[in-house]
What we know:
mainly alpha
Amino acid sequence: MRKLWIRLTGVMAMALMVIPDVVLAAGPKAALLVIVADTRKLSGWEAWFANLYNESHLYFTIVTVVAIPIIGVTLGFLADLVMSRLGIDLKSRELSEH
């Protein structure tokens, strides 16, 4: 167990020595990386969502976290409706093993 901790400590120390070199590889005058969504060919709700991402990552996160469960519940109800129309009964369950 001691050898494992020594190896892990050595790997962490080497990583800490290499990370500054990787970060500064572009030189001292390198600008910070900016990630934006390309909205030139988007319209409607796609453009709104991409612009929301470009303007505020916090609002984008909040909208995404709220929208995903709503979409999931809606799709679940639609799937349940389609399966009930097809005759698949998901309301009651009968086990074949006794």
